[in-house]
Specification:
The protein is mainly α. The chain has one domain: Single alpha-helices involved in coiled-coils or other helix-helix interfaces (Up-down Bundle). It is about 60% helix and about 0% strand.
């Protein structure tokens, strides 16, 4: 369960209809890890999966080649051309 979360009578509820085979599988898996409630098992599994999905979507994955290009760009940035310098100066003039 999420740390610091408190269940109350007004907490949202999630229910699902499953086949007998699925119920037996979930029950067996829960028992194997010492959880007596299928609901607790399913909730914990769903939270773990949701956290993995969110973490995965919030991370940037680069190939080794892309990572090296990124590092090189940080270490040796290109010089601004005339148009970029003019745009930068124009923007700074507006800020003042």
């Amino acid at each position: 369960m999420l740390k610091g979360s408190v269940m109350t009578a007004t907490s949202p509820r999630i229910t699902a209809r499953v086949s007998l085979d699925t119920q037996e599988l979930l029950s067996k898996a829960a028992a194997l890890i010492g959880i007596s409630s299928i609901n607790s098992f399913v909730l914990n599994a769903a939270i773990e999966k949701a956290n993995r999905i969110v973490d995965n979507e919030n991370s940037i994955k680069l190939t080794q080649k892309d990572a090296m290009l990124f590092i090189n760009a940080l270490e040796a940035p290109t010089q601004a051309n005339k148009h970029l310098s003019e745009a930068f100066n124009k923007y700074n003039d507006k800020k003042l």
